[in-house]
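Re: the multi-chain job from yesterday

Posting the exact lines I submitted so nobody has to dig through the queue logs.
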Amino acid sequence: MNSDSPLLVLWDKCCRLMVLALRSLWLHKLRASLSVLGIIIGTAAVISLMAFGEGSMHDALEDIKRQGATNIIVRSIKPPDDGSSQRRSFTVTYGLTYADFERFQMVSSVIGSVPMRIVDPQEIRRMQYMHRGRVVGTTAAYQNINKIQLVMGRFLVDADEEEGDGDDVGMRNVCVLGSDVAEAMFPFESPLGQTVVLNKHLFVVVGVLAERMPTGAVGGSSVSAEEFNNDVYIPLRTCRGRYGERIYIRQSGARSGEQVELHQVTLTVTDMDQVRTTGDAVRDLLERNHLKKDWGVTVPLDRLEAAERQKQRFTVLLVFIASISLFVGGIGIMNIMLATVTERTREIGIRRALGAKRRDITFQFLIEAIVQTSVGGLFGVLLGLGIVYGVPYAAEQFFNSHLPAKLHVLSIFLSLGVSICVGVLFGWYPAQRASRLDPIEALRHE
Amino acid sequence: MSFHNYTPVLSTMPGVVRILDLVKNYELEAVTVRALRGVSLTVEEGDFLALMGPSGSGKSTLLNLLGCLDRPTSGNYYLGEEDVSEMEDDQLSEIRSRYLGFIFQSYNLLAQYTVVENIEVPLLYQDRRLSEETRRRCVELAELVGLGDRLDHRPMQLSGGQQQRVAIARALVNDPHLILADEPTGNLDSRTSDEIMQLLAKLNQAGKTIIMVTHETDIAAWARRVVRMRDGHIESDEPNPHPNGHIALVTRH
Ligand SMILES: Nc1ncnc2c1ncn2[C@@H]1O[C@H](COP(=O)(O)OP(=O)(O)O)[C@@H](O)[C@H]1O
Ligand SMILES: [Mg+2]
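And the result, C-alpha cells for all chains:
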C-alpha cells in the first residue's frame, strides 16, 4: 500500500481527467463547439448585459452628480393655455417670484439657493464675431452649487450684485462666458478684460468656464436636457436691469409676451437624506402661494431611482436571456454527453473491468461535461468582452450614439461559475447513466 | 525486470481460487436460464487452466464470475482468503483493480490512449498517484512484451498481436493474483496466436496463475490443466502432463 493523501490522489485524478477531456474536445472540435454554442451565447449575454446595465447606471449617477445629488431644482413652467390667449396681444405672467425665492430661505434644511433668470438665445457680439447663447442672470452661489470649474478669471461674486460705479444705472456689466462662447468670440486671444456686446450693452468678461457635460432630460418631468457651454452668465441684478422682466415672443404676426421673475431656483441641502423631505416642503410652499401650477420641482436624486429601475430592467432581461441560453446550452451539453456515453459504452466496460468504481465513471463524465462548459464559458467571456468594447465603439463610429458600457469584473467570474454549474447540472444525468451500465453488457457493446 | 520476480509461493493455502457449488441463473421474462448449475473448482497458485466446452455451456458466465464482474445466484467464491460472492459493487471494483488481470478476445484497449497510457489504466483506479516510478514500471512491462519501441503509439497503429501484447502488459501492471483470459487468441492468426501463448506460458512459468477460456484444442494444449464444461456443469477436469512451451523454457535455463 502507499501513503498518498486522498486529496492529492483526487487532484491527480482530476488533472488526468481534465487532460483527457480536453484531448477528446480537441478531437471533436466541431461537435464540441456546436454543443457549447448555447453556453457561449449565455455567458456573452451575461457579461454584455451586465456591462450595459452598469454603464447606464454609471452614466445616470454621473449625471446626478453633475446636477447635484443634494440639490432641488425648482423651475417656472408655463401653465397650459386657457381661452384668454385668443387675444392678439397678451402678456402671461407666471412662474417663480422673488417672493418665492425669499420664502425658500425660510425652509430650515435649505443651506444654499441660487436664483436664475434665463433669457432665451441671444446674439452675443464682438467685432465681426457673433454667437447665439442663453443669457443667464444669477448670483455667486451658482458656482458652488453647480460645482463650476473655471479655466480662467473668476465667476460672479457677491459684489457684482451691488450697485456699481461708472455706470448710468449703477449696474455692474460683467459676464462669465461658457466654453463654446469663449472659443467663438475669442478664437485668438484671451477674453479676460475684453468686452462683448449683449443686448446693445457692453459687458466685461471676467471669467471663462471649463467645458461642462450636459445634463440629461428627466423623463416625464419638467426638466429637459441642458447644454451649458453656450451660456453667458451675468449678475442677476444686471440681468433684471438690462432685459427687464418681460420677454416678448413674436409668433406668426401675433405678439405674445411672457413675464417671469425667476426661471429657476436651485436649492441645496446638507444631506442626501433631506433632499426628498425638503422637496416636499418646497412643493407645499409653492402650492400654497400659487394659484396655477406654474412651477415644477425636480429632485435629481429621483433620477437615481430611475436609473436603478433601468438597471433592474436590465437585470431581469439578463436573467431571462441568460437563463434561456444557458438552459439551451445545458440541454446541448446533456445531449452530447448522452451521445458520448452511448458511443463510449465499451470504454466504460473496459474501465469498469480494470477496476473503475461507479463513482470513477461518474467523475470522468462529469469532469468532461464541466470542461466542455468551462471552455464554452471562456469563449463566451471573450465574446462578451468583444461586445462590451466593440459595440459601444461601433455605435460611436457609425451611428454617432453614446452607448454606455462598463465592464463588471464580477460578471466574468459569475458567468464562468454559472457555466461550471451548468456542466455539473446537465452532466450529472449522463454521468450517472454511464456509471450505472453493467460492466459485462458494456464490454459486449460494439 | 524479469519473469522471475514472480516466484510462486508454495503455500499451504488451499488455492488462489476456490468456488463452491456456484449457481448462476439469468431471469428472463418468461424463463430462467440456468447458465451455471452448481460448479465447484479449486485453482492452485501458479496453475494454468484452460476452460473448454461447447458454445452456451457457461464458460463466459463462469469467467465473468471469476473476474468479479458479476455475482453468483448462489454458492461461494473465495479469491485468496476473501469471500467475494457477497461483495458490494465498489468492493468488487477494488478486487478487480488489485488482484485481477484481464485479457480479452478483442484486446479492449482504449483508443485515445498510447501504449504506455493503456498499460497504466488499472493503476488509475488504485487510489494512488501515478508517479515517475509507476510510469517506469509501465515502460518496463511494454518492453517485456516486446513493445519497447512503440510506447507512444495508439492502438490503431498496432497489429492485432501487438495490441494483445499491450493488453497482456496491462493485465500485469497491478501484479495480479489471477489473470483471466477470454479466448485471447480468438482474433489472431495461428502464428501470432503461438507468440501470445508463448508469452502467457512464460508468465505462468514465472508464477502467474492463469485461467483461459478457449475452444481450440491446440491453444488448450499450452495449459497445465484442462476443464471441460457442458450445460453449466464441469464435465471433466484433467491435468495436461506436457503443456506446450513448458519444456522449451526449462531447457532454456
Ligand atoms: N446476460 C445474459 N442473459 C441471459 N442469458 C444469458 C446471459 N449471458 C449468458 N446467458 C445464457 O447463459 C448460457 C451460458 O452462456 P455463456 O456463459 O455465454 O456460454 P459460453 O460462453 O460457454 O458460450 C447460455 O445459454 C446463454 O444464452
Ligand atoms: Mg462465451
